[in-house]
Amino acid sequence: MAASFLLLLTSVGLFLSAQAQDCSKPVGGDNMDLKGDDILLQTFPDGIKVTFACNVGYQSVGGSASITCTAAAWSPLRMTCERKSCGAIGDVPNGQVDYSEGIQFGDKLTVTCDPGYDLVGNSIIQCGHEGWMGRLPVCEVKHCDPPVDPTIGSFYPVKETYEYREVIQFSCPEPFTLNGSKSLSCSETGVFQPAAPKCVQVECKEPVVKFGHWDSGSRGPYTYKTTVMFKCNEGYRMTNSATIICGINSQWEPELPKCEPVECEEPVVKFGHWDSGSQGPYTYKTTVTFKCNEGYKMTNSATIICGSNSQWGPELPKCEAVPAVQTTTTKSPEATKKPTAPDPNGGGESLSTGVALGVVLAANGLMLLVHNYWM
Questions:
Q1: CB 3.0 to 4.6 Å from 335: which of 9, 36, 60, 331, for a disulfide?
Q2: Residues 212-232 pLDDT 10s
Q3: What is the three-class DSSP state of 154?
Q4: For the chain, which domains are there?
Q5: What's the CA gap between 54 and 62, in Å, rounded?
């Protein structure tokens, strides 16, 4: 009896011991830790309840944050944590906000200003636990100092400073001409662009064209943008522009006209050859006379002249083949008879009573058949 009771007590003790086992330190999900002092403990007694909290920069998106130790095992943890979002920070006048990293905890944004504006403040802001960690910078417009006063001329408006894209205008007094841009603009670099112009006095020299003469335009003085047109003398042709303009640097633009002698190409006549006149070079009014080869005849003018347009005139001579002459015969009935000597008594036939005429093309020329005799 005593032995049975002792065995019962031992079994109950073992059962109670198994039911009351401690739990080891629980492991939470991503981006969370035990809350409070529980994070310092390594073991937890049976029946204890612990709570997890999301790490800094993270927030719970649902599920229970607490678990319970039961017989050395923890109940399931249902909570999940995700990064907090800072949202959009807002607009920056005259600037741009770059969210290429994102808008969640730990991400950074970058602010840049438009051309012509300077950034005042921090250009990089980080998303923190409580939101964006810093104030938005501002973009302030650039300013330009006024240009140096010109020696000759003036500009307007005159101010102590000019904002980005503000424009000033230059002008020159008579008889000076503005060399450069009339308008300057305050650029994104804080400097007026383009470079400031200058007031210059423009006058070109008298233009002289060899083998040419004035045709129209100014007779002088030759100030800025004065135009003159030239013409080449007879027998010469223009090889570039006939019109020139006095440029801002007191030089004629483009280069002065050039007059070169008119020259025709070597004339070639098919089935013909040179007879007289020039044999080259063939300048203006040069004449050449041609002759057709044997067996050919000229169908137009044999003489040509080199014209002012470097063309031969009238058209080049033309040589055409002479057609072969075929044999033709005309006979009287009496011509078929044999010729006889005159009848001393007046009888018989005279040669004049029968005549055969014809022309035959022979190798050695033309032969004429008269009264049945080849001549």
A1: 331
A2: 999 999 999 999 999 999 999
A3: strand
A4: 20-83 (2.10.70.10), 95-141 (2.10.70.10), 143-200 (2.10.70.10), 212-261 (2.10.70.10), 263-321 (2.10.70.10), 328-374 (no CATH)
A5: 11
